[in-house]
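User: Show me sequence and structure for the first protein, then do the same for the second.

Assistant: Starting with the first protein.
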Amino acid sequence: MKPRIRPLALLLALALWLPAAARAGPLTAGGDYAGTDHSGENHRNETLDGIMLSGANLQGIDFRGTSLVDALLDAALLGNADLRNADLTRADLTAADLTQADLRGADFTMAVLDSAVLVGVDARNVMVVGASLQGADLTGSDLRGSSLAGADLSGALLANADLRNVDLSGALLLGADLSGITFAASTVVAGARYDAATAATLPPGFDTSLMVFVPEPASAALVLLGVAALAGSKPGRCASRTPRSARATSTSR
């Protein structure tokens, strides 16, 4: 006697199988995989330019040598991911979580990493030229030998990061936290802009002579208003004016 397959059990099995099948499918350039689960998968040396992985679970994924140019990875989970030598030029990683990821040799030129979590990442010899990392958390990250020239690190947390041999020339460091950083004479900061909030976090011995100090916005505005007032006033001019009320009175007469 053949066992009967109940329709309800079949539907339940199908419901459990479909999500797994969706996860296991191959990734393709330009494809939309937002919110899907590809944790632990191997996608080494693939070309996935323009792929959409917003909010996807990519923890522990292997993206070594993969091209992810213009990829959408905002809010993606990339903890412990292997991104060595990956190309993420102009990729969007806004609010992505890359905790403990291996980023050695990766290219993030002009990428957006605003509010991204990069705590404890191994980011040695990484290209982050012209990238935006506003409010990003790079606490305890190893950035030795990397280039962040022209990058926007406004409000970023770099506490206890290793910045030896790092190029920060022309970078924007307004409000950045650099407390406890490791630096050396080879740390390039020429033209980097910082403010009082950043200065308060700099470790002893950090040379700011080649950096550009930016005053607080309110103070700068007051200075500009003061200069404008001085330029518009002339000695004796106010004393010679007839008050508007007096002119009105004489006219009514």
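Switching to the second protein now.
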Amino acid sequence: MLVAPADKKLLIIADIHGDSQMLLDLLEKGGAVIDGQKNSEVWVCQLGDLCDCSGVSGDAEALELSRRYIDCQLIGNHELGWIRAGAPEFFGISVPSAEEAALIREIDWQPLAVAREKLLIHAGVGPLILERLGLAADEDDPLIVAEEISKRWEEYFYGDEDDEIFKAVGRYRGGSSDAGGIFWLDWGELTEQFAQSPDFALKQIIGHNRLLQPEILGPVSCIDVGGNWSETSYAILIEDRQEFLISKHRSS
């Protein structure tokens, strides 16, 4: 489990889906890369779906940028199969090329991180996931939640058994789970769960959902608008506990 340093600016980048130029532009706009060099005063986290894993986008270039410039690379549902088994996680995902596979091995992939008392995670943690972790639905300490998920992650990643905390897919994404998993939880499911658990207070910054624009639901901020799919991506720059939203459109 990675915890962001308290003495640095934070740049948190949403889903990219293989658009390496958009990623580089956000890194530069957020001050993390200056004249091709990493700025050590900015800690960078990318929320997963760095790659599209479809065989038609610039995944290798995005992976190389992550290797060079990103301090905390989270796993998205698109990369999960590549990283855990070297194979597709779901229909439409390709097998990584030799170049992509080599770059994947050089990156320290993480299921989550904690920054400024917030959980950074791909799809999010809802009240039902908290209950499946054996925690109260109103647990609001991101370090406690991250520790419980990290314990399960080690067993899942290196084991042969599936774990619904990671694999579960809800009906909004064509599955049957009522809780969803941390790589698959949909904004619609999170909205329903939040309505049923008004005391839910776990602060998070997530991606995954391809919204029309960044949205806030109670303690959860979603900044994913599609990346390569919508030609737009967002990042949050956090400096002295102030948050600034940065956007990049492919044509701008």
